[in-house]
Amino acid sequence: MFTDERHAYILNKIQNNDRVSVSNLSKELRVSEVTIRKDLNFLEGQNLLKRTYGGAVAPLNHVIELGIEEKSEKNIEQKDFISNKASQLIDDGLNIFLDAGTTIQAILPYLNKYKDLNIITYDLEIAYRLSKSKDINTYLLGGYIDTKTKTSMSIEGYDNLEKIHADLSFIGTDAFDQDFVYSTTENKAKIKNRMILNSQKSILLCDSSKFHKKGLYSFNKTDNFDYIITDSSNDELNNYIKLNNIKTL
Known about the structure:
37% of the residues lie in helices and 23% in strands. The protein has ten helices and 14 strands. Helix 2 (22-29) crosses helix 3 (33-45). Residues 3-58 form the HTH deoR-type domain.
């Protein structure tokens, strides 16, 4: 296994479990503990984890950017539950911004019953799957293709987005708290923010495991969304939604 592959494995493991141990990683990756320590020291230097005695932990609960393959395997049932609820806000003939990511992708099967939708996105998988539908007009924002997240982003794409207005925007996130919703990159944060600003109603789709996590860039205040649609397993999040009079489904 190459160094980059080990680093990706370690980061994915720490994202799911919040901590890793040198001895376990050494056995799982079949390399020496000396090599694992070097990997952990390097990743700590990139502020991607925090070294502890015998291993490492997630850095202050900050999220890291995972590839689309890793994300697609997480919280599948919650994503389907959330997307089914979100689809109730859709009607024929609407203009809709779809953010990128696997939570947003989960809403696609529920679009088939609607007609004459105009969908604007920068997610390549979403655009490809929607291109097969005769009842949906799909607009893909152009630009550089990020092979890790399978998204298309550029200054030109953002400039085009500024001119487009929609009825609804469905926005995903890897992290949010009581104050802000976060993104792991500046470009994604700018696109998400512009989609929100240029839509009549903005809807945050997020499973409750992302609550109380942080990212590097904030793109909206949490209570500024018209709706927050999530699963019901986090009582603290449910109370936050009620106290701030945020609509949900």
